[in-house]
Amino acid sequence: MGAKYTRGCTGWLIVLVVAALVVAAVVFAVVKKHRHRDVLPVPGPPGSLDQKYADALGVALQFFQVQKCMLAGKLVDNKITWRGDSALDDGNQAGLDLSKGMYDAGDHMKFGFPMAYTATVLSWSILEYGDQMSTAKQLDPALDALKWITDYLINAHPSDNVLFVQVGDPDIDHKCWERAETMAENRPLTQINKTAPGSDVAAETAAAMAAASLVFKSTDSRYSDLLLQHAKKLFTFANNYRGIYSDSIPKVQNFYNSTGYGDELLWAASWLYHATGDQSYLDYVTVKNGNSFADWGRPTWFSWDDKRAGTQVLLSRVHFFGSRQLSSGEMKDLQSYRETAEAVICGLLPDSPTATSSRTEGGLVWIDEWDALQHPVAASFLAVVYSDYMLTSSTPKIQCSGKTFTPSDLRSFATSQVDYILGDNPMKLSYLVGYGNSYPQQVHHRGASIPADATTGCNGFQWLSSTEPNPNVAQGALVGGPFKNDSYIDLRNNSMQSEPSTYNSAALVGLLSGLVTTSSVSTSFR
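-> structure tokens emitted (526 positions)
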């Protein structure tokens, strides 16, 4: 099994790819998709909504509004009434406007590595399921959240070989418990550059910008071109000045430690190939670096730190739909990506001979006690995407050690995981805050835990230790999740279970968007 940390976890699975046919209608002409049981896709508009998933999607997207730093008049229909402007001076000491972006979790740090991953996954979700989001009237909130991050990432890249990857000091930040709107502590900037490289975070940021350039291509070509220019320069920087960013910035190791950069280089080059069609990026991930970085045949978990499975699925898309004029070497390597993607999927399906046995009695894939929902959500997103690729390409089945599975089997797995999250579990608890009648009341989140009119300074720790429900609802927060025995302890101080994150929310948005209705898949993002 592959080993990579995900805020203290190890990995084993997940990937993504994109598939096949039709025209992109709807405001942001993103990608059309179809899947439903084993019926082959028929090009056309999205089908009827599954109201449960539509409602959950609307709730989940609100967490990005909760995590925004600057709100200043930007929200037309702000349902998060207890939030206001914060960190408006971020970046000033370097002459930059870093006031946008999002806090990563329950604190007030802007960590560039998970934030860029959030943007990449959110872009992928829109590209695959934008028409379905539109049908559920949730495309605009998704686009708003994405652009809030990409605006920040553009400003964080002021020159070719400099990228600001952190705003705030995590040691200072974690010694305080206060509302973001009133914090007054020093917020230093941290950068990577030629002498302090960070190939992982630079490449992830390149992936985010390349993917987002595709999202905005049909509606704002100038912005799309700007994103793509930054993506290309960041990839060159990441590739030419190699190093792990958490080696260059030791303080971040306790928060978002990176365990390598090869996966991010492949991930970024894969997105750049989809965004540009430039053959050199495909060569990079196949004949030039596939053997070095791809870990073919070894399924891993998809996360903010490990992009191997995501890359394998994304490049399977090329094997499914765009491989007619490729060299034999490229075809061979793309086949290896696809075979590994299917190994990832086989590890998820409960009836597969190679299924992971690490599940709760309630049926949830469970890998680590810290942020337990990260893996099943990302895994389910990949499973839905891959099932749609199969349907669009008329691929009726995959083989898992001699046993066959259909697209509907993949979709059933994903449905089982999201239904567990939404309340079909032994606790009868929705882990999505604001959805359903019973959800966590003591989310580990500074802003949610402190009354909006309270004056605390840095030392509002009485609100951290309070046993009362949060005075403010962190709408859309996906908490860390249950223990292996399906139990959940609703205490604010229990951060391993009760802290939400934007990167998990991005994967959940993709998952729910893939399940909310049916549609057809485009063979190309461009």
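The chain is about 45% helix and 5% strand.
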